[in-house]
Every structure is written in structure tokens, then in C-alpha cells.
Amino acid sequence: NLVENCIIRHTSSGDAVDAMICLYERRKFDENSISICSKNLEDPKGTREAVMECIKGEGKFLIQKAYDRTPRLGYVPSMRINKGAILPASSNLKDVICSAWTGDKPPTCT
């Protein structure tokens, strides 16, 4: 969560998603992985340096801020879709998403 919050803080939203996908695929959130996953971003060196500095300092504040904004969960894993009710999501995530889907449902929901 620390690395993720620092990435979100110091990159554009598109770069943040790309960086996090890369980190999750590598299954590592260390400095080497952050370097590798920053290479294709708008400002690779600046991003890596900003994220590493954030991890050492500002990141703790960002974690607390995220915690303060997160609703208290009665069950984990849980999810909230479109600011609706918090739903348990461990038995069948697809069913939870499909039941909340508005409009024409995708084929996987039928």
C-alpha cells in the first residue's frame, strides 16, 4: 500500500496504473522493480526518485490519509461499486459485479 500510494501521488493516473500493473506482474515492490516499472513512464528517473523519497517519508502520511478515507469493513475481502453499499466479495466476484451492473450486461454476466 505504501508504494501504491506513493505512485498515485507522484504520477499521472495512466502512469500509475501502468506502473502498478508492472509491479503486480513482477510480484515485487522493491527499488529494482520500481526502477524497471518506471522506465516507460513520462519521466522515468524523476518518477523513480520521487516514489523512493515518498516511501522514506511522505508515504506514511499518505497511508494514514487513505485509511481515514476508507469505510470500515465488516468483512474482508469487501468491495464498493459506484459508491454503493459495501458487499462481501469472496464467494463469487463475478456475480457481485454482474448484479451491480447497470445497462446492457456483458456476455459474461448472462
Q: How would you describe what is shown here?
A:
- The structure is a single chain.
- The chain is mainly α and 110 residues long.
- Helix content is 58%, strand content 5%.
- It has a two-stranded antiparallel ribbon.
- A hairpin with a 5-residue loop joins strand 1 (78-80) and strand 2 (86-88).
- Helix 1 (2-10) runs antiparallel to helix 2 (13-26), helix 2 crosses helix 3 (31-38) and helix 3 runs antiparallel to helix 4 (44-56).
- The mean pLDDT is 83.
At a glance:
The chain has helices at 2-10, 13-26, 31-38, 44-56, 58-69, 93-100, and strands at 78-80, 86-88. The protein has 110 residues and is mainly alpha-helical.
Low-confidence parts, pLDDT < 50 over ≥5 residues?
none
Largest sheet: 2 strands, antiparallel
Counted by DSSP, the helix tally is 6
Shape category: globular
Outline the secondary-structure elements:
Blueprint: H1 2-10, H2 13-26, H3 31-38, H4 44-56, H5 58-69, E1 78-80, E2 86-88, H6 93-100
Antiparallel strand pairs: 1-2
List keywords for this structure.
two-stranded antiparallel sheet, globular, mainly alpha, 110 residues, 5% strand
